Each structure stands twice: as structure tokens, then as C-alpha cells.
Amino acid sequence: MMALQRILCLGLLYHGVIARLSGSGPTAPAAEQQHILSNSAPRKGLHGRFLHITDIHPDEFYKVHSSTDEDDGCHKGEGPAGPYGAETTDCDSPYSLVNATFDWIEANLKDKIDFVVWTGDTARHDRDDDLPRTQDQVLGTNTWIADKFAEMLRNEETGHGMSIPVVPTFGNNDILPHNILLPGPNKWLQTYTHIWRHFIPEAQRHSFEFGGWFHVEVIPNRLAVFSLNTLYFFDRNAGVDGCENPSEPGFKQLEWLRVQLEFMRERGMKVILMGHVPPARTDSKKLWDETCWQKYTLWLHQYRDVVISGMYGHMNIDHFLIHDTHDVDIAFLNGLSPEFGVREYLDDELTVQAGTDYLMELRDDWSKLTPPTVPGKSNEVNQDGKKGRTRKPKRKDPWGERYVLSLVSPSIVPTYFPTLRVVEYNISGLENTPLWRDMPGNGAKNSSHPASAPSAPQKHLDLRSLAPIDDLSDSFENVETDKKKKKKGGKRPKKDKKPHDPNLVVPPPPAKTSPPGPAYSQQPLSLTGYTQYFANLTHINNLNLTDLNSVEPTTTNSLFSLLQSSKSWLMKWRKGKNGGKKPLTPKPDPREFAFAVEYSTFNDKIYKLGDLTVNSFVELAYRIGQKAKGKSLVEMAGDEEVGDVEEEHDCDESDFESDSDSDDEEMEAEAKKGDKKKGDKKKKGKKGDKKKKKKKGKKNKIWLHFLSHAFVGTLDKSELKRYS
Ligand SMILES: *[C@@H]1O[C@H](CO)[C@@H](O)[C@H](O)[C@H]1NC(C)=O
Ligand SMILES: *[C@@H]1O[C@H](CO)[C@@H](O)[C@H](O)[C@H]1NC(C)=O
Ligand SMILES: *[C@@H]1O[C@H](CO)[C@@H](O)[C@H](O)[C@H]1NC(C)=O
Ligand SMILES: *[C@@H]1O[C@H](CO)[C@@H](O)[C@H](O)[C@H]1NC(C)=O
Ligand SMILES: *[C@@H]1O[C@H](CO)[C@@H](O)[C@H](O)[C@H]1NC(C)=O
What are the phi and psi torsion angles at 705 (to 5°)? Predict the structure, then answer.
């Protein structure tokens, strides 16, 4: 029953999104949406959509029907490795999955997107002792995929260059040995300059060879994507040391970022940041060196009028990060205080248990967030047209500018299921803007520089000249609240205390008169939502499995046992849900490969993300943070605003696994969030009595729904319930 319902739901969702993409469906809501979609052929303007693809991990040694055990790793033995990959395992991607993914993108997305964000790890892992990785293999798969993009997106009109830009970055597995990238220039950076010659603007190749960072004006003079080399921020990179010392490449990268963001501000442009390793950080764990995290978060706060979001990969888990700028400690950055709460390295390959532990820590943090006073309302521009800040705020920070957002997309490699993210953004008013491919060198004309920068002058400023440190007291301190002072025992330096590190230049904040940026209030170039596509390999591989040996019952290999046995953060090999089984039939008999919609923020009834602004995510995170058992800190504080949030998200625990359950009360409460959901069918009366139920038992629904997305739908209901 459940499965049938699920398939029906998926069918509906799938239809919805295909309709979105083809411009005719009920889910295409706003006027500009129709505008985008009506332009589909022949392609002229922007579509308001881009693809985020990450962690492809092609493995030339993958063998169909080989064993998923640790010693075999889908390279040998007999077992359940499917024709399109071994879902829920630590095996890498077969070429068939890579080819099928590109075929699907070409058939379904290519003509409907404006650019591609490709966040790295395009080589297999170094996990098979019998087949240690070679430089040729690592560069070979990277070259293959880079060329595949260039070929798929070639500009057919002109026969030169590409029709849309692709912005790549390194993963920690794209170098040898993995994780270790020494300061540039070095042979790796030099080699990638060549492999990515289609993608790196000519004018920036020199600086790329130096540090592995660059940016592309994906919409000339309007929107730039900044490719960050996160390996220089990554705690695991033993070849570098943080972002404090001017000789470190991490320091230099942040200086480059600061200066370039200042130029972008001057030009009135907006920026999407992307990288491989996300700035994940909880009370006990971190992925980035703390000095890098601190500066990055500070930079993003100061450039909150410019930066739209950060897009990352690496973790394979679908989630998001909310940086609290109250965690930025200027005294620490100035070497005046030690790091607050020392954090351990977060393992880069997390088991489901470790991943869940990590997510639980995030959840704890989220329970303490300050949600927008009126959920869904705060993203609108004030009626008096006075640019947001002037109206008396309902909360101290009506736009949520205290927070910074990073989005982490899950992977192609089937650690769970292979998945792709299509992000949509607001293009109102950009109907006639020149496109990337119209710029000289990008395909409009013959050029020896296929991807040269459209117009950006490469200015060079004295890095120190930008902001006197005193600006900090003005801008940064004014979002200070009592909470921080309480928590940190008043350790922060007083306004007049001069920092001691002469190398720390705090960027200037937005002008007092400038309205909230696209990350905070819906406007042109703001992100409006995304659709997560997945390939259900269990279905597609169509394996008829039997236990390999009867001594080992199937449950031993389920995620269940894995959850119970692995209590540590240590990496454990995942042999997957089918581990220890083998196919009955010698010949693979896969079904047709296709991605389908896993979920879409445009119609996810539980996420209810009206858009992807920071306030929307803070509100969602806060709801995820509310626990069924025990009271959260916020509840204990008896904040009356919290009551509103609870009331509105009254849910039934029993139906958490289905996206299609309508919740009329919720829908009505959310009607103000926009008319995107108006077309959805309603099931009247079904939940008439639900409100009387105790709310406490129901809050976990949102958390479990989040977990289900985090692991790309691979955990079934009973497995999920373990975490409630
Ligand atoms: C993948 O596609 C390439 C061409 O791009 C082809 O040479 C190769 O045989 C294909 N591999 C598989 C497994 O389909
Ligand atoms: C443009 O490219 C075509 C095909 O390579 C070539 O025949 C032509 O001479 C080129 N034109 C210019 C102006 O370079
Ligand atoms: C895009 O931004 C404009 C304001 O510039 C706003 O009126 C419109 O509703 C936004 N579109 C979406 C889909 O949010
Ligand atoms: C994937 O396919 C399997 C087999 O058809 C099915 O049991 C399972 O529910 C599907 N998973 C999702 C998330 O759709
Ligand atoms: C699986 O294999 C068994 C034994 O060959 C066969 O009886 C059964 O019909 C097969 N099931 C499917 C779904 O192919």
C-alpha cells in the first residue's frame, strides 16, 4: 500500500516537474515563471535555473555483479553491484552511471539551464589496496568529464565555445595523495588550468595557477559564480595551515575573495560562492580550519548585500548550514583569545550513524535559532518602499542578516542514491540582459580564448587599503545580542580595543542605505527554490537477489546493524542494503535509467520553503530543531513566538514518509507564503481532529522528513524511526 502510494506520489511529482520544465504544468506559478518557460525553444533569454552536480567519482574498475564487501569494493568477487552502481555502499560510480547521467542531463536539462555548478571529486576513491590510484587515472576521469561537459554544451549556433558556462572546482580526491594540496603554483594547479581551459576565463588563468580559485560572470555584469579552492581551508590538508598567516594560501584566497567581492559590490553585481568541502561546523566537529571558517563567515556577513549563497558538495548528505555570525570572534581572529570550544575533524566519509550524529548536532544548534517573527512574511519588501531597514522591525533583525547560508548538495556517487539538484533563481527584470555566450570569446565569435572573461577588469588594489578596522565596531557589533555576551562571558573585545593582527582587514559592511541583499529578501537573482532529482537504483538495477550464504541472514547487512555497530566517527565500510547477497540471474537486466523527482522545495508540504532566502531556512531549521521529547531551550524560555511556529506545523507522525499528504490546516496557515501551493489538491476533513492531538509527538515529523532527504530517500520508515 505504502509503496504503491509512494510510486503514485512520485509519478505526480515527476509529472509536476516535467511540466515545470516544459512550461505547462500547474506547478509553474508566478508570472516570471511562465515567462521563463515560454522561452524554451528556440532558446533566447535566461531560464532562471542552474544545475548543481557533485561528487561523480567515476570508477573504471567497477564490475557489475561484483561484491560490495570492503575487500572487493565492487572491483571483484561475486555480489550485488548493480549495472548502474551499488546504492547505499562505499563503491564508486560505474561508467554506465556517468554516461546515463550525462545522457539524462542532455535530454532533460541542457536547454533549460543557464549555467552549471560542478563541485568536484571526479575521480574514484583510493580505497582498493590492490588498485592504488595513479595520477593518470585521477586526471583521466577529470579530463573525461570536463570534455563531456564541453562537448554536451558546445555552442551549436556558432560552432565555437559553449552555450552556457560550467564552473568547476577541486575535490579532495582530485589530487594525489588525496586531501594534500600544497600551496601553488604547482603541477596540479597547472594541469587543471589545462583540463578546465573551457571553463576558466582567460584573464584568470594566471591567478588560478597560483591558487586554484577563479570566478565566472555567468550573467555578464549581473551574476558571478566564485569557485573557491576549499582544499586550502580544509583541516585535513596537511600541506597548508589555515587562514591567519599571510604566507598561507588560505589567507591569500580570502584576501582575493574580499577584494573581488568589493569589486562586485562596486559594480552592483551579485555572487554565488561554490566549493567542494563545505564549511560544516558543529559544537564538536568541523571540516574547515577555524581561522578560515571565522574569516569566511565574517566576509559573508560584511558582503551580505552581494553574496547570494554558498554551494558545496563532499559530504554526500543533503543538508544545509546556517552560520551564525555571532560565532565570529574578532578577538580570536586577532590572536587575542584561543579558539572557543576546540573541534575535532569531521570525517569526510560518514556512515549513516556518524552522519546522523552530525545532523543531530546541527539540529541542536538549530533549536536555538531565532526564527523570523512572522514566518514567510519577512521576505517581502516593505509597502512603504523604504528599503526594509527603515521600518520598525518586528524582531531585532527582520531579514535574518545575523545568519549566513550554505547549501550542501548530495552526490552522483550512490553512497545513497545518485542525485542532481536544479536550483531556480529570480530573473525578473533580466529579460533582456546579455548572456554569457553573447560575450566575445565565449562562443559568439571565433576566438582563440574560448572562455575569456566578458568584461571584468582585473583590478589590483592594495589589499590593506579597503577597510579601516574601526568599521567593524560600526557594522559587526550592531547585530550583537545579549546571548553572545552571556554565552562567551563578555570575552569579546570592547569597541575601542584595537585588534593586534595587522594582517586582519575587516571588509566594510553594506552602505547604510542599501536594501537587504538577495540572500535575505526576494529580488532579482535571489534563489527561489530547487528540485532534487534522484535515480532509484534499487528499481533501475532490477536485481533478483538471494543470500550469498545462508549463515548470514539479510538483516545483518541492513543499515540497522550498521547503525548499531558503528558508534564512532570512524570511517566504516558500507556494503549497503544488498551486501552479502548475489544476483540469481547471471545477466544484468536493468530497467531504463532515469532521474525522477525526489522532492522539490516548490511543493514540499513539510519543508514549506517559500523561497531559499536565509529567513526561510532559519524558519525551517528552527522547526527541524523542535524536539518531540523534552523541551528545547527556546521552549523553556517561553517565547510566545514559538507557539505560532508550533501551531502551524502540527503534523501527523505516521505519514512523514510521503510528500503528498496534504495538510489543510498547514496549507491555510501557509497561504500567506505565496500562491505556489494553490494548485495542490486538498484532502478535506482527513485531519479534522489532528489538532487536538498532543503536539509533542508530532514535531519529529519534520526532523524525520529532513533525515529522509538527507539520505536521499534510502532509509525506510522503520529505519528513520530509530532516530526520532
Ligand atoms: C560511456 O560513454 C563513452 C563515450 O562517451 C563510451 O566510450 C563508453 O563505452 C561508455 N561506457 C559505458 C559503460 O557505457
Ligand atoms: C572561424 O572559425 C571557422 C571554423 O573553424 C573558420 O573557418 C573561420 O576562418 C574562423 N573565422 C575567423 C574570423 O577566425
Ligand atoms: C522576484 O523578485 C521580484 C522583486 O524584484 C518579486 O516581485 C517577485 O515576486 C520575485 N519572484 C519570485 C518567483 O519570487
Ligand atoms: C526505490 O525502488 C524500490 C524498488 O522498486 C522501492 O521499494 C523503494 O521504495 C524506492 N525508493 C524510493 C525512495 O522511491
Ligand atoms: C527471481 O529468480 C527466481 C529464481 O530463478 C525466479 O523464480 C523468480 O521469478 C525471479 N524473480 C523475478 C522478479 O525475476
Answer: -65, -45
pLDDT tens-place string over residues 449-489: 444 433 343 344 333 333 333 333 334 433 333 334 334 44
Report the phi/psi class of residue 419: left, alpha or beta, with left for phi > 0 and alpha for psi in -120 to 50: beta
Q: Whose CA is nearest to atom 4 of ligand 5?
A: 584
How far, in Å, from the CA of 446 to the mean position of ligand 2? Answer: 6
The pLDDT of 246-270, averaged and rounded, is 97
DSSP 362: H
Q: Which atom of ligand 1 is nearest to the CA of 95?
A: 13
Cell matching residue 32: 516570471
How far does the centroid of ligand 4 lie from the alpha carbon of residue 714, in Å? 8
What's the CA gap between 45 and 314, in Å, rounded? 32
Is any atom of ligand 3 closer than 6 Å to the C-beta of 426?
yes
131-142: pLDDT as tens digits:
999 999 999 999
User: C-alpha grid cell for residue 462?
Assistant: 592594495
Q: Rounded CA gap, 34 and 228, in Å?
A: 34
- Which ligand approaches the C-alpha of residue 417 most closely? 4
- Give dist(CA 213, CA 179) in Å, integer: 17
- Higher confidence at residue 160 or residue 394? 160
Which amino acids bring their CB within 6 angstroms of ligand 4? 3, 6, 536, 538-539, 713
- Alpha helices (H) along 385-505: 471-475, 482-487
Give the strand order in the sheet containing 214-219: 214-219, 223-227, 270-274, 307-312, 403-408, 319-324
Q: Count the neighbouring beta carbons within 10 Å of the beta carbon of residue 27.
A: 21
Residue 583 alpha carbon to ligand 5 centre in Å: 10
- pLDDT above 60 (res 512): yes
Which atom of ligand 4 is the closest one to the Cα of 6? 14
Q: Is the Cβ atom of 96 under 6 angstroms away from ligand 1?
A: yes
Indicate whether residue 5 lines ligand 1 (CB < 6 A): no
Nearest to 323, CA basis, from 270, 271, 287, 377: 287
The three-state DSSP-derived secondary structure of 366-396 is HHCCCCCCCCCCCCCCCCCCCCCCCCCCCCC
Rounded average pLDDT over 478-502: 46
Rounded distance from Cα 657 to ligand 4 centre (Å): 12
- Torsion angle, CA of 492/507/276/184, rounded to 10 degrees? -110
Question: Using a 6 Å cutoff on CB, does residue 434 contact ligand 3?
Answer: no
Q: What are phi and psi of 160, to 5 degrees?
A: -130, 140
Q: Across residues 419-437, what is the average pLDDT?
A: 96
Q: Is 32 in the pocket of ligand 3 (CB under 6 A)?
A: yes
Lowest pLDDT segment from 182-186, 292-296, 676-680: 676-680
Please state the atom number of ligand 1 nearest to the C-alpha of residue 98.
1
Ligand 3 center from residue 31 Cα (angstroms): 9
The distance between the two most distant Cα atoms of the chain, rounded to a whole number of Å, is 75
- Closest-CA residue, ligand 4 atom 10, reads 536
pTM, two decimal places: 0.80
- Specify the residue for cell string 569557485: 227
User: If you average pLDDT over every residue of the chain, what do you get?
Assistant: 78
Q: Are 302 and 402 a contacting pair, CB within 8 Å? A: no
Cβ of residue 95 lying under 6 Å from some atom of ligand 1: yes
Q: Rounded to the nearest whole angstrom, what is the distance from the C-alpha of residue 2 to the centroid of ligand 4?
A: 11
Q: Which atom of ligand 1 approaches the CA of 94 most closely? A: 13
pLDDT at res. 501: 81
Which ligand places an atom closest to the C-alpha of 583? Answer: 5
Top-confidence residue, 244 or 476 = 244
Q: What is the pLDDT of residues 163-202, one digit of tens each?
A: 999 999 999 999 999 999 999 999 999 999 999 999 999 9
Report pLDDT for 395.
66
